[in-house]
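dumping this here before i forget
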Amino acid sequence: MSWIKENCVTFFQLFCIKVVKNGRIPNHIAFIMDGNRRFAKKNSVQSSVGHHKGFDKLSETLKWCLDLGVPEVTVYAFSIENFKRSEEEVAALMDLARDKFKKLLDEIDLINEWGVRIHVAGHLSLLPEDLRSLVAQAMLATRHNNILQLNIAYAYTGRDEISRAASHIVNGVKNEELSIEDIDENLVSQTLDLGEAELLVRTSGEVRLSDFMLWQVSNTVLYFSDVLWPEFTIWNLLAAIIHFQRHAPPLTLEVENNNDKKKFLSKLEDKWWQELESFVAC
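structure:
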């Protein structure tokens, strides 16, 4: 299946989307796509089938988010802790990622037409070299798109993300790019892989964060659903957004960085893109 499933919304569903859009739509929705393995067990199929169904559901959800006008979506695709699963399941998940990123590159013209920018967040050095190259190619090929940013948390945990951000800041101080006085919450937030989410949705009935976006969700509206991720529907998404509209905190103003912070963050971003180019060259 394509990364974005077309023609997956009925006329009535489109009408309901327009009604919901009369209220505030989250600028950033994060999904913990839980329940793929339970879906497989429930339907007496292999776990790999559940993961494939989970990706199919992601492609539908992205189209719904585009229709809703959501500018940023983050999905928790693979935790660093998932490497502890059976060798067979980890290999199947890596193969699934290879297949889907190859598919993305094959349909890159369509992805660019939709204006979707791919950002893979996580400890990329933990990935197999060939998969790392595909991931880098996807990010480089979509870096200028600006309709919807899809963040894929892969080989990711929140604690690892925070520790890597801290290392960047420590190096910035050591290299005299930053002063101790420059270190504040805003700088840490901008040094992380992922930005703050306004709404976080977790499926399958679990009510834990599971080491996902720990720094970013301090002011986030949380929505937990009992539905398994492959069975997630547009009605579940609209219910989550209505829940957000009822509980959303006031919007806050962005804090302006001083010149040293701007230069540090710009240099860090340049280094990131150079690293991605090196992954492709390997």
